[in-house]
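Researcher: Let's run the pair from yesterday's discussion. Sequence first, then tokens, for each.
Model: Starting with the first of the pair.
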Amino acid sequence: MPAVTFEQVAEHIRATVPVRVAELTPETTIRDLALDSMLLVEMVVDLQEEFDVMLSQAELSRINTLGELVEALRSQ
């Protein structure tokens, strides 16, 4: 599997969340995205399917920023 890049993750987030990719940085927090619980679940499921990974609830609860999300996806 090719390495997961921030740009790939940002594009997938943009497809789910109404935000410009240019506004997303590795330091952007999940909270900054102002997602309701359904959009958050949809975003995570889409990312897991796209990158063929499975993040546990414990792993997800430790993720605060998009950079941390990318690292979690890479570590699988």
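Model: Moving on to the second of the pair.
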Amino acid sequence: MEYTYTVIYQLTEEGGTSAYVPALGVNTQGGSLEEARSMAKDLIQDQVETFVKTGKVVPQETERYEGEKVSVKVTVTVT
């Protein structure tokens, strides 16, 4: 299944880039925009997989956000 979330990027005072995913309420940062993008995608992937593995409802975006859309695919294994 594919999940898509908006990521909002902002430059930090230290010269890096922060990445915030409002629908999941999580953030991360990287030394550059590209690093922050990669970190955000990994964070989204981990968060969604955790929700799925623990049987919790995966949050969906209910509001419109200005930012970059990031999609991840999660494979659910039934045992």
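Researcher: Give me one sentence on the second I can quote.
Model: DSSP finds one helix and four strands in the chain.
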